[in-house]
Amino acid sequence: MATKKAQLQQGNNLRDFTQRDELSDVTLIVQGEPLYVHKVYLAEWSPVWRAMFVANFREKSAQEIELPGKELEQMVELLHCIYPSQKAINEENVHFLLELAEEYQIEKIKQRCEVFLLSGNTDLESLLLAQRYCLDKLYTKCIEGATRLTLEDLEKCDEFQQLEPRTLNTIYKSKINTMRDYASYIKEKEVAMEKECNKVSRERDRIQSKLQTVKMLWETPSKRCYRHMGNTAMFDFSCRECNEKVYREIKKLCSELPNNRIN
Ligand SMILES: [Zn+2]
Description:
This protein has 263 residues and is mainly alpha-helical. 60% of the residues lie in helices and 5% in strands. It folds into 3 domains: 1-106, Potassium Channel Kv1.1, Chain A (2-Layer Sandwich), CATH 3.30.710; 121-204, no CATH class; 220-263, no CATH class. A hairpin with a 2-residue loop joins strand 1 and strand 2. It starts with a helix and ends in an 8-residue tail after the last helix. Zinc ion (ZN) is lined by residues 224-225, 227-228, 236, 239, 241-242.
């Protein structure tokens, strides 16, 4: 007869490990409570459990294994995560699940914890977990995040003191690389701007020289009409031909100037 607790858990599609199961062949004792589980299934997940069951079988053939120092709720949560119910990793269970998965070498649970953490804030708290449990992808992503902090902000974080030297080294190296990349970006920009600046200067000189030529037109007797060509006097604004010649010259010079230089 199922207890109320078991019924509740069945409603959630979660196994009640405190209830006897005719197929369970080993009982884990946690905080004095029995958890009925299946050797073969657990052994598939954890080489530590496999070794434990093998040793237990050889030495005592006992069906009960005491797990001292473990929390009942945490062990049940771990079992829910590895049994077919595959309970999800969340903010509440991720820390102790990582610790248990590390102890029992349950790689798949570690991977699922890492995937969960990767979906959240990759802050220094996550970096500490990545550092502690060797979660490489999370480690790399958290280092990227830490690299974006200023050294002052980094040192102000509570977690700073717990960063291992190798982690600090990686962050500093990454910061140096970022600065080097930024410096070469600035250098490239500088070269491009210098090029642009030279181009504009040449353009300015060209326009200035054209304008100077235009200005000189009125002072150049050879640019006047055939009647006033040899005339050294000031330009005669009253002569229609002189004006037309100069006008044509100006028009020609202006057509050689670009219309819109600045885009
Ligand atoms: Zn004239």
